[in-house]
Amino acid sequence: MTKNLIDDGFRADLVSKAFFDGILEIPIIEKPEKIVIPEGIVPFSLRERDKEHKCFICFYEHDIRFSDCLTAADNYVEELSEYPGIISPDCSLYIDMPLCLQIANVYMNRAIGHYFQSKGMYVVPNIRWGDERTYTTIELPEKVAFLGAPKRSIVSVGTYGCVKSKEAKMYFREGLTAMIDELEPEVVLVYGSMPRYVFEGLENRTRFVNYPDWITYKKAGGR
Fold first, then answer.
1. Which residues are 83's β-sheet partners?
2. 8 Å CB contact between 165 and 195
3. Which domains does the chain have, with CATH numbers?
4. How many CA atoms lie within 13 A of 16 on its CB side?
5. Are strands 26-27 and 20-21 parallel, antiparallel or unpaired?
C-alpha cells in the first residue's frame, strides 16, 4: 500500500493518546507534578558531551541537527530517557514564515513533547513564537504559540540567535510578554543571553533561570 508522505512526516501516531487544545487541536504537554530546575542544558546534537547525564536535553540549534528526532522520535526514547528531562523541540518559527508553517511547527513541538512525556520523561514545554499572528488574536481567535502548554507551571524559551537585531528584540519582547500574560508561568528557563531591552520589567512577574548557550558555556570553562 502506498504511504501518504504527509501523514508519515507529521507522525499522527505519536499523538494517538493525546488531549488537544483549542480549535486547532494542538497536542497538550501536561503540567508536571512538581517543578524541576535543570542542573544544566545541553543541545540534542551535543548530548554525548554530558557524559554523566545530569543535563536536560534541549533543541536550541538549527532544525537540521534534530530532524531525525522529529521524524523518528521512537528511536530516541531509550537514549533520552537516561537524562533527567528534555525541553520540547524548538522547531523554527520565523517572522516571515507563512502562518500555516508556523502553526505546523508549533504542532510538532507539542506532538514530540507529548510523545516523550507519554514515555515517562520529564518534559518542559518550549515556547516559541513567530510574528504577531502567533502570539495575538489579530489573525486567529487563539494565540497559537501558547496552545498545548500548561498554565502556572514551568516553560522554556531560547534567545540564542533570536535577539540579534532591533526588530528581533521587539518581536521577542512582545511574544515573551504575551506568553507571561497567557500562561502565568512560575518558572521560565532561558537558554541564551537575556538582553535588558527584552527582559527589563518582567523579572517581577515570574522566575527566570538563565543558562548560557553551549558555546559560551564551554568558553567559560564548562565541562
1. none
2. no
3. 38-219 (3.20.20)
4. 4
5. antiparallel
Alpha helices (H) along 99-143: 99-118, 132-135
- Parallel/antiparallel/unpaired status of strands 187-191 and 154-158: parallel
Buried b (16+ CB within 10 A) or exposed e, 73-83: beebeeebeeb
Dihedrals phi, psi of 213, to nearest 5 degrees: -65, 160
Which grid coordinates belong to 175? 511574544
CA distance 199 to 4: 44
Cβ atoms of 128 and 93 closer than 8 Å? yes
3-state DSSP assignment of residue 187: strand
- In this structure, the number of other CB atoms found within 10 A of the CB of residue 95 comes to 16
Of 93, 87, 108, the residue nearest 43 (C-alpha)? 87
Spell out the per-residue pLDDT of the chain, length 223, in tens. 444 445 556 678 899 999 999 999 999 999 999 999 999 999 999 999 999 999 999 999 999 999 999 999 999 999 999 999 999 999 999 888 999 999 999 999 999 999 999 999 999 999 999 999 999 999 999 999 999 999 999 999 999 877 878 888 899 999 999 999 999 999 999 999 999 999 999 999 999 999 998 777 766 666 5
